[in-house]
Amino acid sequence: QVQLVESGGGSVQAGDSLQISCTASGRTFSSYTMGWFRQAPGKEREFVAAVRWNGGRTSYSDSVQGRFTMSRDNTKNTVYLQMNNLKPEDTAVYYCAAKLSRSWLISTRPNEYDYWGQGTQVTVSS
Q1: Cβ(99)–Cβ(114) under 8 Å?
Q2: Which of 20, 51, 54, 66 is the most buried (most CB within 10 A)?
Q3: Distance of CA 109 to the CA centre of its chain
Q4: Distance between CA atoms of 102 and 20, rounded to whole angstroms?
């Protein structure tokens, strides 16, 4: 069982930067692919970014590629999402997710992840 707790959300202006974090409980954090997803009001949950168990490979959605950077620190059981040049369309609840996998392939579909955090709100004003 893994429990995920997100932090760092807030309200910013367009063009600003923000970093959100997700800390996991348990001793097997390095066995998990970790992902960030987001969900805006009235929309489906969508993939944002993911990182392999050892941080050696990441994947991003086209909408955040070049602006967001995901990283992980397995010594702290924590993943980070650094978000730069934020846009109003980035406004959403951001969820951290964990998938028990050391596969080279990175999952981008929500139903492939095993555990979820409660989410943290990110609001970007124009």
Answers
A1: yes
A2: 51
A3: 13
A4: 24
Give the separation between CA 90 and CA 39, rounded to whole angstroms. Answer: 9
Residue 54: HSE in the Cβ half-sphere, 13 Å Cα cutoff? 5
For residues 105 and 112, give the distance between their C-alpha atoms in angstroms, rounded to a whole number: 12
Tens-place pLDDT, residues 19-77:
999 999 987 899 999 999 999 999 999 999 999 988 889 999 999 999 999 999 999 99
Count the neighbouring beta carbons within 10 Å of the beta carbon of residue 60.
Answer: 20
Of 94, 81, 107, the C-alpha closest to 40 is 94
Tokens of 6: 């997100």
